[in-house]
Amino acid sequence: MQVIFAILIAAVLVGLNAFLYIRNRQTPVPEGCENIKPDCAACGIGDCALRSKFLEMKEEENGDH
Predict the structure, then answer these.
(1) Which residues are CB-neighbours of 60 under 8 A, at least 6 positions away?
(2) pLDDT, tens digit, 9 for 90 and up, residues 1-49
(3) DSSP secondary-structure letter at 27?
(4) CA–CA separation, 43 vs 45, rounded Å?
(5) How many CB atoms lie under 10 A from the CB of residue 3?
(6) Considering the entire predicted model, what is its pTM?
(7) Alpha-carbon gap, residue 4 to 9, rounded angstroms
(8) Lesser CB count within 10 Å: N end or C end of the chain?
(9) Alpha helices, DSSP H only, in 1-65?
């Protein structure tokens, strides 16, 4: 009986996760947040994945790459 409850709870959690994921993808982007780019100049984390991508994009825009 405990196995059935465990499977039922897992199925409910997976279903809830799928439902919320789909609803999140359908939610429109708020006004003013369409093209947000990170401003990594104020961030002190040097090994952040977003920071490295941001710096690469900035170098390509400046033609330094």
Answers:
(1) none
(2) 999 999 999 999 999 999 999 999 999 988 887 777 666 666 767 677 7
(3) S
(4) 6
(5) 7
(6) 0.51
(7) 9
(8) N
(9) 2-26, 49-62
